[in-house]
Structure formats: C-alpha cells, structure tokens
Design a protein that fits this description.
It is a single chain. By secondary structure, the protein is α+β, with helices and mostly antiparallel strands. The protein contains five helices and eleven strands, in the order E-H-E-E-H-E-H-E-H-E-E-E-E-H-E-E.
C-alpha cells in the first residue's frame, strides 16, 4: 500500500460543480488512468480518496489537496503521464508525492485557507470609500455574522476566524478593478466562508462592491503554527 498526495486545481470551467461531483470526477479520471487505486471493503466498496477541505460551489481554487491510497507505488512521472490526460478542463494536476502511509488525514492537519476576492467598484464610487470600509472593518475587535441554516439561526464572530487584517488593492484592468485577500482559519468547530466575509463588508461596512458579481478564488491551503505557513505537499 502507498499513500499519494496530489495538488490539483478547480478552475472556472467547473466552478459551479459541487464538491461531491468534483470528487466523482477525480475518481473517474483515476480509473481511466488505470492507477492501482485501493478500495474499501464491504458491500459497497469506494475508492480510498480524501480531500483536505471541501470547496464551496462557485469558488475556484489554485490549490486543492487530496490523498489517494494505492495498492502499490508507481513512479511519479508515470503516474502524472497517465493521469493528466484524463482530467477534464478546469482540473490540472500541479504536483504529486508520496507521504507516509500512517500520516494524519489532510482534514485533520490543514487549518488555514487563503482566498482572493476579485470585484468591481460600484459605478460612481471612489477608491477612498473602499479603503475606509476595509479600515473600519479591520479596526473592529468583534464582527458578528448571523448565519441561517436548516438547523436554525447561528451567530458567528468573523474576526475569530481571520488570522490577519483584510487587504485590498486596486487592479490595473478597468473591470474588475479591485482584489481582496483573506486568510481564514479552519478549526474543528468550523470556519467562516469568504462570501460571508464579503457580505458583512458590503452590507455592514459599506464596501462599494457588487458582491453577487465578485469572483472568489482559493489560492492556497496551509498547515500553520501561527508563524509559518506550509502547504500539505511540503510535509
């Protein structure tokens, strides 16, 4: 047995594919590539494949990580040559390496996600309004977001999950013309979604951006001790 760690993308062509369908697409690509994937035992065997963190529908990613168990190790170059042609548009294999068979699950060790939100300044608004909104938000000690779900109403302190201030900068292109950077903790008790942070910024702090037209991209998943960020492929 061998445990293979893959770094892949989820690009714009499949941004509206659910996490379940995304995982199923990877499984089918592995089968077409004829990789020696390991399967669970029992009445309904399934491929031993586990992701670090599910990605919300509509969000793209430059760095998704998954562990795939194989019945035997094969050369990485051969594996890449077989798998890459089987991946559809929007999924690109960026890196692959073997990790210890008994290493901790990705979901148990990945504790930070970095995002960028690309949007457009509302017509008639000036850049000063953007900076004022972000500065006011960053100065807050606590920012409550009310989350409604089938399980009921829940209040979340967004600041509890942000590891550093939100950063905003202009983009040279005319449209879209600004980008926000967020670093969000992933904890056993949960996390906050970047779209929820954006909603609070626009609704509560007057950020002059069309939140419904903004593009959200996950630029990395990391393991951090609060000082150093390491990607799961570096372990």
């Amino acid at each position: 047995m061998a445990k293979l760690r893959l770094k892949i993308t989820k690009g714009n062509p499949i941004r509206f594919v659910s996490h379940l369908d995304f995982a199923g697409t990877i499984e089918r690509a592995v089968r077409r590539a004829k990789l020696p994937a390991a399967y669970s035992e029992g009445f309904n065997p399934h491929m031993k494949l586990a992701f670090a963190s599910a990605l919300a529908v509509g969000v793209t990613s430059e760095a998704e990580y998954l562990d795939l168990e194989l019945t035997e190790a094969i050369d990485i170059a051969l594996l890449e040559a077989r798998l890459k042609p089987q991946l559809p548009a929007g999924i690109e294999l960026k890196a692959a390496k073997y990790v210890e068979q008994h290493s901790k699950a990705l979901m148990a060790v990945v504790n930070l996600a970095a995002y960028e939100i690309i949007g457009s300044l509302t017509p008639g608004k000036v850049w000063d309004a953007v900076e004022t909104s972000i500065d006011n938000f960053n100065r807050e000690v606590e920012v409550i977001y009310v989350k409604q779900s089938p399980k009921g109403r829940r209040e979340i302190d967004i600041k509890e999950y942000l590891t550093e201030p939100v950063v905003v900068k202009p983009l040279p292109a005319k449209q879209p013309n600004l980008i926000l950077n967020l670093a969000i903790k992933i904890t056993p008790g949960g996390s906050v979604k970047p779209v929820e942070v954006l909603t609070v910024l626009t609704d509560n702090y007057g950020l002059p951006v069309d939140k419904d037209a903004a593009l959200i991209n996950r630029i990395g998943l990391f393991i951090t001790n609060g000082k150093v960020w390491r990607s799961p492929i570096e372990l």
